[in-house]
Amino acid sequence: MAAATSRRRKVGKIRWSNLYSFACLRPSTSEERPAGREVLGQPGFSRVVFCNETHLHKKKPYKYPYNNISTTKYNVLTFLPRALFEQFRRVANFYFLLAAVFSLFSLAPFSRASLIAPLVFVVGISMLKEAVEDWHRFLQDLDVNNRTVKTHRSNGVFEDKSWKELRVGDVVKVNKDEYFPSDLLLLSSSYEDGVCYVETMNLDGETNLKIKRCLEACLCLNEDKEFSRFKAIVRCEDPNPNLYTFVGNLEFKKESHPLSPSQLLLRDSKLRNTDYIYGVVIFSGHDTKAVRNSTRSPSKRSRIERKMDHIIYILFSMLVLVSLVSSIGSSMFMKHDMVDWWYLRLPDDSNSEEDDDRFFNPSKPVKSAVLQFIRALILYGYLIPISLYVSIEVVKVLQTMLINKDIELYDEVTCKSVQARTSNLNEELGQVEMILSDKTGTLTCNQMEFRKCSIAGISYGGDITEVDLAASMRMNADFEPFEFSMEETERATRSFELYEFSVSGFSAQNGNARLSKTEEPVIKGFNFRDDRLMNKNWIHGTNLSDITMFFRVMALCHTGIPIEDDNHKTGKLSYEAESPEEVSFLIASQEFGFQFFRRTQSLMVLKEFDPSSMREVEREYKLQNLLEFSSSRKRMSVIVSNEDGQIFLLCKGADSIIFDRLDDNGRTYEQATALHLSSYAEDGFRTLAFAYREIEAGEYERWNTIFTQAKATIGPEREELLEQASEMIEKDLILLGVVAVEDKLQKGVPECIDKLAQAGLKIWLLTGDKRETAINIGFACSLLRQDMMQFHLSLSREAESNNEVKAMEEEILQQIRSSYKLLSEEGNNEAPYGLIIDGKALEIALRGDIKDEFLQLAVNCASVICCRVSPKQKALITRLVKQYTGRTTLAIGDGANDVGMIQEADIGVGISGMEGMQAVMASDFSLPQFRFLERLLIVHGHWCYQRISKMVLYFVYKNVAFGLTLFYYELYTSFSGEVLYDDWYMTMFNVMLTSLPVIALGVLEQDVSSDICLQFPALYQQGPRNVHFSWSRIVGWLLNGMVTSLVIFLANIYILSPTALQQNGFVADIGSLGAITYTCIIWTVNCQIALFTSHFTWIQHLSIWGSIILWYIFLLAYGALPPNLSGNAFQVLIEVIGPTPLYWTITMLVVIVSLLPYFVHIVIQRSFYPMDDHIIQEMEKCLKKDDVRDNQMWLREQRNSQMSTHVGFSARVEAKVVSFSQQMQQKKVSIYRSVTNSPIYRSITRTPFS
């Protein structure tokens, strides 16, 4: 503890405000903020916070909400009314609700219980599912609300307090790597200067740490005991969603101090590189800016579910049609024929009202027709599958359980697995066509690794990329054997770098050129392999002075802080800095023998390895000035003086910026370095150039005077004066080289993107990072290729500075049209194109009169990268892509800045990494890492789409087959109103006797296994093309149901009518006819699902054949009840139909004839028009299991299943193979020419042999 305190105090001695030149740490002054003070107290700026006096916020007008948040859909009071409303918004449920109401008034042909019981069961199951899902959301809220933070109680004592109990005015102490529980006003930090580092990636996606600074007046509040008497008043703006603005003032010690955004710490951002901070709660709970930027998750429905509504409308139209036929037919028969049938005793004018039959009253034909219509609507209601919705709900819940429990979707590193947060979109996973992805934290790990460098025109770092490795393995079989040797000399390196091979990774084996893969890095942030630099071997190289200066720039040009940790026994230090790149540079310089180990206010100390003495020496460098890095400058410089009094400017920055500032004598290595830069960029690395210059003392004194005056300037011109001063000194530089760092991708990202591309999905990258970073990541994850033509849409500096909307629109429109013209007129339509656009150009391109042309260009490009985009732009482009293309879109991100995009997409996926839970809580599915998206879509998405499609089609089939038999019987009996089946037969049909097989189908059906789904990614295209749920298939199954119902009814009627059912001559009555017909239906629909199923387990067999057996058990048990309960079914199985051979013969015959049309259809389809999955299934079953994967037919189909794509790992490998082949051919030609032009060869060829 003492050591930690000592280290903290040591670190805290640095006053960063004296080091930094530009505005990021400049204290706010009253002169600069007059507008802010004027608006305080006016509408929108009326908030008053009493610091450390929370009791004053318990009464109005200063009563503000607690800090708890809620993302649930229901609460205890609203659950019942809202859930019922959601259920009866469905057409089918509302229809059966009306049927249940009519049953209360004796208008239904069935008993009340048989109508009400299924409705209660269906709605109850759906509401239970809604309650369970909302309960999980409640538990997640509970987890966040129960986090604890140190809160001031009294007398300088801080105790743990849950987030939900915080109130406005509470003083809290947040420790390093903790999230801020609410919006806080920074009071002080562990640094004496009151500075703290904040990571806002969860809010805006930016990786660079933000620097916040407290007011000078609050620097005294640096210990717990100082808060025992602390009181202050904050007057500020009202709660709003603006993340980057804050207006207010702090009244402390009878003085008023203006506040700015640099004093505001936002909820869900994290404290980094700072031991602790003290802050006071300004906004709490739903008043915080982060929560106000989030919105309720919209209600999303899959395409199949929306299409299912149309099917219900079709079935309802059929229901109305047959009901009208029954109603009109009944009225016509009653008017013309029934009046002559004396035995019916129809009512007439002479009958009393008590004998009036409302359904058959010739004197009131209109009323009877209307009542018959209502009765028919209820009678034929089994055309509408009441259990369809609840069965789908149950199936989807079980599907999500299988997804959540998939061991292949479990990440052992984070101990997290995929979580389906909603079950409504399972099948939508199988129809995705567009993926819009965030970069930071989604594709990358937020970790930088030092990979390669170029010093004095020589490239170092032998580790190769996966693309090079795969290409070399592919080429081994194609290369013609020839050998040549290479030595690890700089001359050999220079010559062979032209062919983009690495010395340390190259070997000649069996006469073939081959690249090898190096081992994983053992030092975090340092993944460099080259013996020429490692282990101090750099001292043997040429240009030693340049190499030494290169390492000094790496060790001195930064804002990092050395931190002792567990590695102090080995002499190694850890570092903390504003950006992860600087940390990787400091680790690399330490490994090369230049350890930065101490820093004071004006001194930087290195432990350098001295080549002359061959030992480590300690050297001090006086820090004169620091010119910080910014997005506009794209460079950073420090001015230091060594122990000999020499003054050096050390500079690092973007290569284009550094190259423009080189002296004529400093361009020695420019050409070679440019080649290396191109190679590093293709590998997806971030690059920075290193340069330096020596400054004369007199020149420095003159410049420092100008710079000091500019730094002391207060006002808007300060930035411009500082920039002018920097331009004066950052010139005439000498190039040393470049470094290449890797923004490390998450494990499996390139492979995942490659498989998704082969499955036919398009991937767009939307990031808040700068253009260069986005392009590097595009190469790293194989969204871009070196041979890909890139269209860059951006505003010129002139148009941007003039800020004329019309001129900017014309410029962007011209760029779009010229790019699209080039794309359209290109002779080779297979050429790959990539589109890169920045945020400002995107803002113009998404306007009403330009957006259509922009989207037309974008959707025709192989890959699209949008950089510098805001959260609002992410959501907007997601919405426009969805509307313009009509395709199913999936958005994936990990931070709060991705919430809008996630909610706007058809499917939202959140990465449950280390950046908070905002994205996850707004998502439909959460993943531990991006790579799991491959299996989630290609395997589970494909399965779920096919399962739900088959399930709905089968439901339509079986309900049409069952419901139409009632209509046929009505026609056959001259609209008598008799019901063919017993009431409880009707109830049991959907609830028990046919429900289990269809649930098993929806949960366990597989056309192919998971391994084959991944081997044949093009199978996924069945979903986007909607192969299994097209209107042709829907109509086909409707016709199949009609044919089945017709065959079943006619066969039973015309076989049983002229024939005695029993040996004593008794014919079948309505009870026997109904039982026999019902048996045929149960057998037929269950055998149909057996034919329909591709993947059988014991569960399928048990559900299908068990449902048939269950029918006989039910009929036996129901028939055993007393006649007043069982009615016509009394002992019908044992005494009537069971002993009759005709019953069993009819059942077998009807089932065979009913299934014959479908059987013929599948035979013809599989024989002459097979689908991809049909071919794979037959190969698996027909070929031997041992050699099926090595069979030529299998390999051919596997190659054919990989869709042609211009992005992805495989596409880059193909391009690299072509490039390597051309290079090797050039090498062979060069060798051949050098040999044939040699004197020895000429002398041999000219000398005749005897």
UniProtKB/TrEMBL annotation:
<feature type="binding site">
    <location>
        <position position="438"/>
    </location>
    <ligand>
        <name>ATP</name>
    </ligand>
</feature>
<dbReference type="GO" id="GO:0005886">
    <property type="term" value="C:plasma membrane"/>
</dbReference>
<feature type="binding site">
    <location>
        <position position="438"/>
    </location>
    <ligand>
        <name>Mg(2+)</name>
    </ligand>
</feature>
<dbReference type="InterPro" id="IPR018303">
    <property type="entry name" value="ATPase_P-typ_P_site"/>
</dbReference>
<feature type="binding site">
    <location>
        <position position="868"/>
    </location>
    <ligand>
        <name>ATP</name>
    </ligand>
</feature>
<feature type="binding site">
    <location>
        <position position="767"/>
    </location>
    <ligand>
        <name>ATP</name>
    </ligand>
</feature>
<feature type="binding site">
    <location>
        <position position="894"/>
    </location>
    <ligand>
        <name>Mg(2+)</name>
    </ligand>
</feature>
<feature type="binding site">
    <location>
        <position position="898"/>
    </location>
    <ligand>
        <name>ATP</name>
    </ligand>
</feature>
<dbReference type="Pfam" id="PF13246">
    <property type="entry name" value="Cation_ATPase"/>
</dbReference>
<dbReference type="InterPro" id="IPR023299">
    <property type="entry name" value="ATPase_P-typ_cyto_dom_N"/>
</dbReference>
<dbReference type="InterPro" id="IPR032630">
    <property type="entry name" value="P_typ_ATPase_c"/>
</dbReference>
<feature type="transmembrane region" description="Helical">
    <location>
        <begin position="311"/>
        <end position="334"/>
    </location>
</feature>
<feature type="binding site">
    <location>
        <position position="582"/>
    </location>
    <ligand>
        <name>ATP</name>
    </ligand>
</feature>
<feature type="binding site">
    <location>
        <position position="652"/>
    </location>
    <ligand>
        <name>ATP</name>
    </ligand>
</feature>
<keyword id="KW-1278">Translocase</keyword>
<dbReference type="Pfam" id="PF16212">
    <property type="entry name" value="PhoLip_ATPase_C"/>
</dbReference>
<protein>
    <recommendedName>
        <fullName>Phospholipid-transporting ATPase</fullName>
        <ecNumber>7.6.2.1</ecNumber>
    </recommendedName>
</protein>
<feature type="transmembrane region" description="Helical">
    <location>
        <begin position="1034"/>
        <end position="1055"/>
    </location>
</feature>
<feature type="transmembrane region" description="Helical">
    <location>
        <begin position="369"/>
        <end position="392"/>
    </location>
</feature>
<feature type="transmembrane region" description="Helical">
    <location>
        <begin position="1141"/>
        <end position="1164"/>
    </location>
</feature>
<feature type="binding site">
    <location>
        <position position="686"/>
    </location>
    <ligand>
        <name>ATP</name>
    </ligand>
</feature>
<keyword id="KW-0547">Nucleotide-binding</keyword>
<dbReference type="GO" id="GO:0140326">
    <property type="term" value="F:ATPase-coupled intramembrane lipid transporter activity"/>
</dbReference>
<dbReference type="InterPro" id="IPR044492">
    <property type="entry name" value="P_typ_ATPase_HD_dom"/>
</dbReference>
<feature type="domain" description="P-type ATPase C-terminal">
    <location>
        <begin position="920"/>
        <end position="1170"/>
    </location>
</feature>
<feature type="domain" description="P-type ATPase N-terminal">
    <location>
        <begin position="49"/>
        <end position="114"/>
    </location>
</feature>
<keyword id="KW-0812">Transmembrane</keyword>
<feature type="binding site">
    <location>
        <position position="874"/>
    </location>
    <ligand>
        <name>ATP</name>
    </ligand>
</feature>
<dbReference type="InterPro" id="IPR032631">
    <property type="entry name" value="P-type_ATPase_N"/>
</dbReference>
<keyword id="KW-0479">Metal-binding</keyword>
<keyword id="KW-0460">Magnesium</keyword>
<keyword id="KW-1133">Transmembrane helix</keyword>
<feature type="binding site">
    <location>
        <position position="629"/>
    </location>
    <ligand>
        <name>ATP</name>
    </ligand>
</feature>
<dbReference type="GO" id="GO:0016887">
    <property type="term" value="F:ATP hydrolysis activity"/>
</dbReference>
<dbReference type="GO" id="GO:0005524">
    <property type="term" value="F:ATP binding"/>
</dbReference>
<feature type="transmembrane region" description="Helical">
    <location>
        <begin position="1104"/>
        <end position="1121"/>
    </location>
</feature>
<feature type="binding site">
    <location>
        <position position="768"/>
    </location>
    <ligand>
        <name>ATP</name>
    </ligand>
</feature>
<feature type="binding site">
    <location>
        <position position="440"/>
    </location>
    <ligand>
        <name>ATP</name>
    </ligand>
</feature>
<feature type="transmembrane region" description="Helical">
    <location>
        <begin position="115"/>
        <end position="132"/>
    </location>
</feature>
<dbReference type="GO" id="GO:0000287">
    <property type="term" value="F:magnesium ion binding"/>
</dbReference>
<feature type="transmembrane region" description="Helical">
    <location>
        <begin position="984"/>
        <end position="1004"/>
    </location>
</feature>
<dbReference type="GO" id="GO:0045332">
    <property type="term" value="P:phospholipid translocation"/>
</dbReference>
